[in-house]
Amino acid sequence: MAITDWPAGERPREKLITRGAASLSDAELLAIFLRTGVAGKSAVDLARELLTRFGSLTQLFAASEADFCAVHGMGQAKYVQLQAIMEMSLRGLKEELQRGDALNSPRAVRDYLQLLLGGRQQEVFLVLFLDTQHRVIASEELFHGTLSQTSVYPREVVKRALAHNAAAVILAHNHPSGVAEPSQSDQLLTNALKQALSLVDVRVLDHFVVAVGQTLSFAEKGLI
Length: 224
Known about the structure:
Layout (H helix, E strand, L loop, with lengths): L11 H8 L6 H9 L8 H12 L2 H5 L3 H5 L6 H24 L6 H12 L6 E7 L5 E9 L9 H10 L4 E7 L9 H15 L4 E9 L2 E4 L7
Helix pairs in contact: 2-3, 6-7, 8-9
């Protein structure tokens, strides 16, 4: 059944207008982005297929152009539009972190890191550099691949902190395995970075471990 044949109150666009965006499911939100379906499938059906294929919105955002375009009905134009939406979301969250104290905006920090790292298939180590008021100065991906105390170089993190004249940092990395639990290696790495950065009077405020739909804070767990 085409979406136009649905009761008006259940159509995604009308539902968003009358009840707000938060009332829509992931599939309904994605259907509004898709606008139309394909032969035999409504936009909602196609959205559900995309979510089933990729696993979540986060993983869909992180999909390669080839994987996205391999789905019937998708193409480069839709891929470009989706990447533009993701980038606008990231920039909006980053602006929020640049305006206020990152410690007072834990939701924005989590949302930013989840959107940026949650769906990545390779491990990424990222640092948020903060000023004396804990506003974000910059966000940099410094290391990629298998992360450990031996593959993340404290001197490089210190060098970048000094380059940004940062007073504090928030560390983050992802677990493509899907489990946001810190390993012993993660804890050793955090301690090594804290020690190195303390020598130049830069505080480590937190270390986040990100997996799809999960973000663990070292500070909240009492690990930092």
